[in-house]
Structure formats: C-alpha cells, structure tokens
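Q: Hi! Curious about what Flagellar biosynthesis protein FliR looks like structurally. Here's the sequence.
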Amino acid sequence: MINYSFSVYDLEYFLLILVRVACFVHTAPFFSLRNTPSRVRIGISFFTSILLYQALTPAEAVVYSTLTEYTIIVMKEAIVGLLIGFSASMCTSIVNFAGSIADMETGLSMVTLMDPTSRESTSITGALYQYGLMLLMISTGMYRYLFGALADTFILIPVNGAVFRTDSLLNSVIEFLGNYVIIGFRIILPIFCAILLLNAVLGVLAKVAPQVNMFAVGMQLKILVGLSIIFFTAGMLPGIADFVFGEMKEMIDSFVGGMM
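A: Let's find out. The predicted structure is below.
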C-alpha cells in the first residue's frame, strides 16, 4: 500500500521551494514578460516546485522555533530567487543599451516603445533587438538552461543555506558593467562607423556647398543609412545572442557563487 502522507514539515519545505522558484520566474527573462499572464507564471512556479520537491529531500537545516525565524527563512529564499533571476535579466539590457546608442546616432532617439522585460520605455532599435533576443532564447532552448540552473541552485545553495557575500556580489556587478559597455558598443559598431563616416562627408559638403542646408539633408541621410545598416547586419543577431547568453551564464554562476 502506497503511503501518501504529507506532514506539516513537508508543507513548510515545499513552500520554501515555491518561494524561490516564484521569485525567479517573476524576474527571469522571457518568463517575466508583461504579456505573460499571471496565471501562467503561477502555474509554472507551482508545478516546477512540485517536480523539485519530488527530487529533493527535506533538509534538516530548516529548523525554527518562532514564526519570525520562519519568516526570515522565507525572505532568504525570496532574495535567492530574485538575485538569480535578476542576474539573468540584467544581461538582456545590453541590447537595449546598444539600441539606445544606435538610435541616438541615427536620429531616432525620440521614438520610444515599451520594453517587454523591464516595463520601461526603450528605443525602437532596442525593442527590435530585445524581441529578436527573446525569439532566439526560445528557439535555442535557453529557457531550459535557466530552469536547469535554478534546479542546480538547490544543490549548491540548499534551502536556508544561503550565505550572502556582498563583496563577491558587488564584484560580479562591477565586472558585468565593464562587459555591458564593451558588448553594447560591439553590437552597434557598424552603425557607429557608418554614421561617423557620413558625418565626415556631410562636414566636407558643408564647406564645399555652404548654401545647401546640410542639417535637413543630414537627418534624412542618417535615418536612411542607419536603417540600411540595421537591415544588412540583421544576420549578426545570432552572434549577439551568443555573447549575451554567454554573459548570462557567467552572471548566474558568479551570483550563485556569491551566495554559497
């Protein structure tokens, strides 16, 4: 006869797993999209927690004597889930930074759209890169890696076993900011070079033919050249995604290492 007993301690342990998973789903890229229904995110969190609970053995370290101590444990699990999801979500902002610089160079900086991940206004080129990155995340199965990384954190960081090392986490963020600028400028380097050459040509023409309004001509040429470069460099998007996904894996590893 199969025993389906489920004690109060098991329920408390399951709730701690659910808190970490739910916080991760709330902040992780692709799953935190605004157009994702809340019921879908709740369902993903609940059923993923059930699978993880079946694979994990309730840890003996989850002991407490008062409700306040259990609340502290819940908050620790919530912070762990938020930091893991935030470390992955930060990397997707690289394409928004690149899109903002590209639109500033082409004269489209006043055209803004809603970013599906950060829920903030972003440039039109940044939104284009963002949706392309989300599409590649689905097609390459990167979302499976995120859930696999989340499952591995329960082995590296057991429930109520997180130790927050602020120095390590701060160093990870500082290192990311350096890579953030480098990768962002590498993405828009073709546009930047093309607009730089165009500005040089317009400067020469302004001296040769001062009667021509180069300001009005230059605005239209910049938009035309910028959109053309974006069109011809669309094939670079898989390479951009590789850079971003690689940075995402490194950030998750460094953040998890800072909580072990």
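A: A fun detail: The two ends are 40 Å apart (CA to CA).
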